[in-house]
Amino acid sequence: MQLSCSSVSPFRRCTIAAKFVRAAQGEIGMTEMITVESSVPPFMRSFTTAMLYGLWGWLTRPLQLVVKAGVPDVLGERPQSAAASTMAMGSLGGIVSAYDFSRFDVVADIGGGQGALARAILERAPNTQAILFDLPDVVAGAVPAERLQVQAGNFLRDPLPPADLHILKLILHDWPDATALTILSAVRRAARVGGKLLVIEALMTDKAGFHASHIMNISMLAMVGGRERTPDQLRRMFIDTGFRLVRVIPTDSPIAQIVEAEAV
Hints:
The chain has helices at about 40-55, 65-70, 70-75, 80-90, 90-95, 115-125, 135-140, 175-190, 210-225, 230-240; strands at about 1-5, 15-20, 30-35, 105-110, 130-135, 150, 165-170, 190-200, 245-250, 255-264. By secondary structure, it is α/β, with parallel strands linked by helices. It has 2 domains: about 1-70, no CATH class; about 90-264, Rossmann fold, CATH 3.40.50.150. The strands form 2 sheets. It has a 7-stranded mixed sheet with strand order 6-5-4-7-8-10-9, with helices on both faces. A 3-stranded antiparallel sheet has the order 1-2-3. The termini are far apart. Residues about 1-40 and about 60-90 have low confidence and may be disordered.
């Protein structure tokens, strides 16, 4: 099967070729996906290949299985999908070098996976304490580190840990607006007035040409019903949940820009 995006903005000139096979068990699976467009930056060609092959591959599975098991469980069954997900959630160096975390006593990474970002922050900020908050099955695999406290919980249901700085890295884009507002409200309840929040996402842009946020946006919509957002859309969400937008901080990663907000 070949998917051609040549007539769909913003994917002008973007062509993707995918091959499907039927496994012995009768499952239809994606075995190869290749982006064909020399004008797309090399990093984005690699990213698109990994992102779409690894994560869109689960769309070839029966819809009932995806709904029953949930996307994280399906990804867990596919090593290549998990690898693509890890790639999409990387870019730690660009984040920790773009922001001064050392001015905070306590930093809480909400939905922080197994703690890669938290540990990277602690390496840069020797006097800072970090809290890693994620689902029990996720934090069970966290690598211990000095000054790192691990707390299991569900950010949609459980109280979040108080901190001077809360981080939502590649979290809000997983969710539609109503759920994203619920998450932001939970963070606000845990934050003191003047506390900071970092939302780290692939921010949408109206600039012409290919941008990482475009492929991320359609991927989030296809996979989990979420979306990437513009800084102004996040600003309005901040207002609705007790924050104010402070600034947008660029990083050297095309898939992870930093939006800083303050609790009011």
